[in-house]
Specification:
Elements (H helix, E strand, L loop, with lengths): L2 H9 L7 H14 L4 H21 L10 H17 L4 H19 L8 H21 L1 H4 L24 H22 L2 H11 L1 H6 L4 H27 L9 H14 L4 H21 L4 H15 L1 H4 L1 H7 L5
Helix pairs in contact: 2-8, 3-8, 3-11, 3-12, 3-13, 4-5, 4-6, 4-11, 5-11, 8-11, 9-11, 12-13, 13-14
Amino acid sequence: MNHDTRASILNLSRMRPWEPVLWLLAFAAPLLLPGHALIVNEIAIVALFAISLDLVLGYTGIVSLGHAAFFGMGAYAAALFSKHAMPDPLLGMAVSVACATLLGAVASLTVMRGTDLTRLMVTLGAGLIMMELANRMDWLTGGADGLQGVVMGPVLGLFEFDLYGRTAAWYSLSVLLVGFLLARRLVYSPLGASFKAIRDNRLRAGAIGIPVNRRIAVAYTIAAALAGAAGALLAQTTAFASLEVFDFHRSADVMLILIVGGTGWLYGGVAGAIVFKLLHDLLSSITPQYWTFWLGLFLVVLVLVGRDRLLKPWTWFGKGREA
């Protein structure tokens, strides 16, 4: 790849003029909407989780139904580190990302070969294995009762987690922004271009000299690290970790989020998380028993009508996204 092409690709990773405005509004949301700081925190966590899956699904073309394995690993690593070592959130985040990265590197060996259906089953199995391990190791994880007694210290030693969730929201938004910028730099790089080449045609990518298996392993490992960071945020902002973080619905929900927001552009995960969580919160408050029916109906309409027409405002921001 020549110098001009490399410079052109890296130039795409720079923020557009309208993007800082969106992020400033996001960080202002806990102040402008103080009663909704907790849902802002949830949206930031889910958005980071969705971005991590988009790296393997939207950019590399690897389907996964076991992404919750890395999310859960990050959550338990953060909770255990806080309970038995140090309550510092940033150190706990670093430990969680390291643990999830290691798990992702090992799990990447299972997705290099086979069809999409095979990968679905293998990744789903990985998530179920992690859930059962956490259940069996109740002396460490608390089993079905969850890991209790987690105490989280202030962020940077200055900002205590409050009951209103404002500190949690700003902390999660900060980690989301860092993860988003890192993911953006990755996808708009020569390495990211090789991911998209593998997604479009694996055989052709191998024919032009791209080490396909190694690239898949790298993408899967990086995605696992981001998913682990999202899991750590959940454990740190709630001071609790349970088997639910490994549950299948975690992987299924994040897949639905990418269906709503779109794959192959990083803002798809953010947009999908906002729409999904707001719909979840609204529908469950109106019809607690049947909110899944209305959410399912929305997804059916979304598929039949088309996301670009139904969620048109988001497409304005996505017009410049990569194919």
